[in-house]
Write a structure and sequence with these properties.
Helix 4 packs antiparallel against helix 5. This protein is an alpha+beta fold. About 5% of the residues have low confidence. A four-stranded mixed beta sheet has the order 1-2-3-4. The chain has a two-stranded antiparallel ribbon with strand order 5-6. It has a domain of about 100 residues. It is built from six helices and six strands.
Amino acid sequence: MGNVSFTRPIDQQVNNHQGLETVLAKAFKQVFADVFEQQVQDMLDYGCPHLGSRKVIERFSKQDGLVVLRRPLTSDTLMRVIYANWSSLASERGLGFLEFVLRMIWTDQWQIKRLWHPIKTYLNYPAHITVEEKPDHFLTSRLRISIEDTVDTSEIVELAPIIRRLVPANIVVKVHAKALDVEFGNKAIGAAVYGKVYQVIDFSDHGTVN
């Protein structure tokens, strides 16, 4: 949205260009601009978040479960485009929107593969799923998104849970990072830290134990 002048009444007031009134008006405008102007502007932009500040678009992206990017130069623009398309598609969101988001984030460094399962072993589903389409296999509701090793792995780890939520509820998505050769499913990647305590004795001070 266009910026709104919240001090227009002061600016347009008659005979406000001289004396103490001018000084007070300038002081008020400066304080208002420093403290409240951006906050009020953000509230006005709630009606069309994709045109608002980074704070607004990030807040609404989180609220709707969309990707929140941390790239220095392009994240704001990408999030605006993604949110605008998300809002306009409404009930027509599906695999097409998933492909759109992946293309916006990682250009052509990804591939979506539909997964199949042998008919004869359907009782063991999904133990034998495969990316190969064969006559004796049935198409499952599962997808595998393979992401090239040229993509920042930390970004994949951060965005994988969100990407899995961009599809209809009946679709199960696995995100595969080639750089790590790991699939990100419902389980999160964690790290364990091990520490060992050492006792240090300072013999220069009568054997005091630290």
